[in-house]
Automatic annotation (TrEMBL):
This is Dihydropteroate synthase. GO terms for biological process: folic acid biosynthetic process; tetrahydrofolate biosynthetic process. Catalyzes the condensation of para-aminobenzoate (pABA) with 6-hydroxymethyl-7,8-dihydropterin diphosphate (DHPt-PP) to form 7,8-dihydropteroate (H2Pte), the immediate precursor of folate derivatives. Belongs to the DHPS family. The lineage of its organism: Bacteria, Bacillati, Cyanobacteriota, Cyanophyceae, Nostocales. It catalyses: (7,8-dihydropterin-6-yl)methyl diphosphate + 4-aminobenzoate = 7,8-dihydropteroate + diphosphate. It comes from Nostoc sphaeroides CCNUC1. It is an enzyme of class 2 (transferase). Pfam families: Pterin_bind (PF00809). The keyword Metal-binding applies.
Length: 282
């Protein structure tokens, strides 16, 4: 696996410590914080708080990808994301990622100062995504999914879950590199909760190390998700912080390099202790 990646002058040294991606949803309908940060002023305050709490990357999303989320128009997504980036970029020094499946949003976002593209479809929803990212020269996060956020929860019938996730990611890494994306700029994500049922989410954690032979940094996004709510019998996503902490710790011990989280301050404590216990060179 590549030992490091330079993004906006910051060196991400894979294997040395866990990095935190702070979630900034600028949507009215995200499952946990929809409507809280969908004005530019609220988004800026939240981004600054995430950085102060220890976020290494801020991930901006203008389209909710929760199960059943309605697809918005390209114009709506561009307006949401670009208005926030224009306010954030002059004030935020850490790398900014944009969570999108549309090549046009990726291109406009990077031109507005974004540094990373986070594509929940692994480059499959928009045939122009991978060539566009190759042209832009930025890192991309390729996530595993089946179907779309509207249909994915009806597509959980796997013969061999981890093998199928591995095969999908392996294929998309090949497609990405063939279009000109530097392999060292590819990060993979098994897609917790995306076309996965409760038992399958747990299976991903237990078998996460099987993805390490793809030789890409691994991102895990388990923060506040419904499988944690089921374990805790907790319907309020914001009351799942301790459960998220346990999932994050498990992810680190099973090979995760980046954690995509809402509660950065708490997960920074988790990752610092887990790294000290796990990584001898920490």
């Amino acid at each position: 696996m590549p030992r490091n990646l330079i993004i906006r002058g910051r060196c991400f040294e894979w294997g040395q410590r866990t990095y935190l991606m702070g979630i900034l949803n600028v949507t009215p309908d995200s499952f946990s914080d929809g409507g809280e940060f969908n004005t530019t002023s609220a988004a800026l305050v939240q981004a600054q708080a995430l950085v102060a709490a220890g976020a290494d990357i801020i991930d901006v999303g203008g389209q909710s990808t929760r199960p059943g989320a309605k697809q918005i128009t390209l114009a709506e997504e561009l307006e949401r994301v670009l208005s926030v980036l224009q306010v954030l970029r002059p004030e935020i020094s850490v790398p900014i990622s944009v969570d999108t499946t549309r090549a046009a949003v990726a291109k406009a976002s990077v031109e507005a100062g974004a540094d990373i593209i986070n594509d929940i479809s692994g480059g499959t929803f928009d045939s122009e995504m991978l060539p566009t990212v190759a042209e832009l020269g930025v890192p991309i996060i390729l996530m595993h999914i089946r179907g779309t956020p509207q249909t994915m929860q009806q597509q959980t019938d796997y013969q061999d879950l981890l093998k199928e996730i591995y095969s999908f990611l392996d294929r998309q890494i090949e497609v990405a590199t063939a279009t000109g994306i530097d392999r060292d700029k590819i990060i993979i994500d098994p897609g917790i909760g995306f076309a996965k049922n409760y038992e399958q989410n747990l299976e991903i954690f237990r078998g996460l190390r099987s993805l390490s032979t793809l030789n890409c940094p691994i991102l895990i996004g388990a923060s506040r998700k419904s499988f944690i709510g089921r374990i805790l019998n907790q319907s309020d996503p914001k009351a799942r912080v301790w459960g998220t902490a346990a999932a994050c710790c498990a992810a680190i011990f099973n090979g995760a390099d980046i954690l995509r989280v809402h509660d950065v301050q708490e997960m920074r404590d988790v990752s610092l202790v887990a790294d000290a216990l796990l990584r001898q060179d920490a």
